[in-house]
Amino acid sequence: MTELPLIARARAHGSAIAFATKTGTHTYQNLLDHSAAYAATLLDDRGDLQEARVALLVPAGFEYAAAQWGTWRAGGIKVPLCLSATEGEWEYALTDSGATIVMATAALAEKIGPLCRRLGVRLLVTDAMTAAPASGSATAKTLPFVTPERRAMILYTSGTTSKPKGVVTTHANIQAQIESLVAAWEWSAQDRIPLFLPLHHIHGIINVMSCALWTGARIEAFERFDLPAILGRVRADAYTLFMAVPTIYVKLIQALEAASPDDRTAVVGGFARLRLMVSGSAALPASVHEQWTALTGQKLLERYGMTEIGMAISNPYHGERRPGAVGQALPGVEVRLKAETGAIITAEEEPGEIQVRGPGVFRAYWNRPEVSAESFDDGWFRTGDMAVLERGYYRIMGRLSVDIIKSGGYKLSALEIEAALLEHPHIRECAVIGVPDSTWGEAVAAAVVLADGTTLELPALREWCREKLSYYKIPQRLLVMKELPRNAMGKVTKPALRAGF
Ligand code: MLC
Ligand code: AMP
Prior knowledge:
Blueprint: H1 5-13, E1 17-21, E2 24-27, H2 28-43, E3 53-57, H3 62-73, E4 77-80, H4 87-97, E5 101-104, H5 106-119, E6 122-125, H6 126-131, H7 136-140, E7 151-157, E8 165-170, H8 171-184, E9 192-195, H9 202-215, E10 218-221, H10 227-235, E11 241-244, H11 246-258, H12 261-272, E12 276-279, H13 286-296, E13 301-306, E14 310-314, E15 328-329, E16 334-338, E17 352-357, E18 364-365, H14 369-374, E19 376-377, E20 380-390, E21 393-399, E22 404-407, E23 410-413, H15 414-421, E24 427-437, E25 441-450, H16 458-465, E26 477-480, H17 494-500
Parallel strand pairs: 1-10, 3-4, 3-5, 5-6, 9-10, 11-12, 12-13, 25-26
Antiparallel strand pairs: 1-2, 7-8, 8-18, 13-14, 14-15, 16-17, 17-20, 19-20, 20-21, 22-23, 24-25
Helix pairs in contact: 1-2, 2-3, 8-9, 10-12, 11-13
The protein binds malonyl-coenzyme A (MLC) and adenosine monophosphate.
């Protein structure tokens, strides 16, 4: 074999439609041609990018997929950036990954251009590349042979360190993640799926886009979660599959309840006819699961995953989909629970940390050998999530770290947000936690101690944060305190803070 399997498979899907948008459709052959042209441009006069990092600032859609495949076919590592990040966040991702090239649409190139110039990073504007015909020289260029063991992608994930860490996956890891889901959820070339999740995280990249492109299915991409447009397409039976985070199901329930009886009947009918609806990236409250079934007749399939491992545990496609539980290990994935004592748990009803092993598990954190080593326990990845086995299914109980927050499916680091807040001239001390929220799962809540003689209100704080943090990291609650609760060691007792909100 001389090509990555993803590319070789696309040749077989040739004339099938890969992407459908308001403005037109693109076949798999278009994707092959475009990605070859992108690869040729990226390579310039080189024969292989040799794992050079190529950052992507492109909205979901055909261009994004072509840029991703172009990077891979040229031998590069793709680093997708959050479209709405602040300049500081972009700068961190570019410098930490050592990216030498940014691919961006014209509109986004204008925003990131000054930073690229300052950092000396080459900026390629995708629209300009598309406008130029795929010249003979581009398509005729011999592309390098990229072996599956080579590194393919770095995804930045927030966690227990203040700054996000780069999760490095190889082509083989990505393929294993895709093949597991394609088998478990019975993907086929007849599938059609909307893509409205951000493409700097695996939920959108792997579960939706890559599984679809692997099987020859059709993707309808939206630049953002455009609820009215998506509902319109659901009622028109445009899809067979639907994958979203719990917050989206909460928002869909709200929209259906607010709709006129006729509209509701039409949209509910569309949802009822889908072959599968999946929820993940955060806990789906059993009440939301049950409300959705009552409204549409659909039994949501909840699954559990993580950037470092892909998807690990899932309710079954055939069989009982149990509200409040995430099911069993996916094909090709080994899961075990480890007790605090160090014992491997074999009995039901005993909680332990979820540890995962398998070909989909990432290679390492980028440039962080020590953190990488600490994250594995005898070859098993330590997720930091606690679970228990009940009647044969895993149920997630929570996280080991109080510094990780999940809001709207985004994983946030309390430490990163605290570091930003401490730059505020009025804030002397602060502690950030996630508090339960019926829409977002958890909402970012900040407790602060102010400098003498100063005041601070939430709207002003949120406005100030816009320069520093992506919008989904900005605190939604604020509590001004005289002092933060601390233990004998002087460490803030975050569980005690929760009561204050
Ligand atoms: C939007 N807002 C948020 C937010 N998203 N606040 C907190 N947390 C979030 N996640 C705020 C906005 O700033 C805005 O505030 C207001 O909510 C409405 O914004 P919006 O843009 O209209 O919201 P919407 O488009 O509806 O976005 C909601 C969403 C989005 C759920 C579509 O959050 C989203 O795409 N989440 C998915 C993230 C994801 O893909 N995670 C997967 C990670 S991978 P204001 O003040 O302006 O009104 C992973 C592994 C796995 O977890 O297992 O899958
Ligand atoms: P991320 O690091 O953004 O990939 O997020 C992964 C984390 O999301 C996991 O470690 C879990 O804490 C959480 N998560 C994902 N799916 C679920 C689920 N179905 N239920 C509860 N938590 C989940």
